[in-house]
Design goal:
This protein is mainly α. The chain has eight helices and no strands. The protein is elongated, with a radius of gyration of 22 Å. The two termini are 37 Å apart. The model has no long low-confidence stretch (mean pLDDT 90).
C-alpha cells in the first residue's frame, strides 16, 4: 500500500486498512507524519509521533485513526526546487550549497548569465 491510502484512511474513511503484516510493513511513518504536518489541526499529533518514532507501526496508525477528526485534507507536497543558478555558482566558485545560495543573493542576473557561459561544457540542453 502507498502512504496516500493510509492518509486517506486516517483523514477521511476511518477504515482500518492495516489488516496483516504486509500492510503493516507498507506503512511509512515518515511519510504519514509529513502528510499530516501540513495542517494546523494535525501538526501537533504528527510531532508527537515524531517524538515517539520507536513505536510499532500498528500503534502509530491506531493513534492517528482514533484521535484525528474526520475531514477532507489535501495539500500539495512540498518539493525541493531545482535551482540551476545555485549549481552554476557552486561549480564556478567551488562553494557548498549554503554558501552558493548566499553568493547568489549578491549576483545580478547578467553576472549569473556570464557564469553560466563560463561553466558551460557544451552539448545539448
Amino acid at each position: 500500500m502507498n502512504p496516500f491510502e493510509y492518509l486517506n484512511a486516517i483523514n477521511d474513511t476511518k477504515k482500518d486498512i492495516m489488516v496483516d503484516d504486509i500492510a503493516e510493513k507498507g506503512y511509512s511513518s515518515y511519510m504519514i507524519n509529513r502528510g499530516l504536518s501540513y495542517f494546523n489541526d494535525t501538526v501537533l499529533f504528527a510531532n508527537e509521533m515524531n517524538r515517539n518514532h520507536h513505536l510499532d507501526h500498528r500503534l502509530q496508525f491506531d493513534f492517528y485513526i482514533n484521535i484525528i477528526r474526520k475531514r477532507k485534507r489535501f495539500s500539495k507536497w512540498m518539493k525541493p526546487e531545482v535551482v540551476s543558478d545555485v549549481e552554476v555558482v557552486k561549480e564556478y566558485y567551488g562553494y557548498s550549497n549554503e554558501k552558493a545560495r548566499q553568493a547568489l543573493t549578491l549576483l545580478t542576473k547578467d553576472q549569473i548569465n556570464a557564469l553560466e557561459k563560463k561553466v558551460s561544457k557544451g552539448g545539448r540542453k
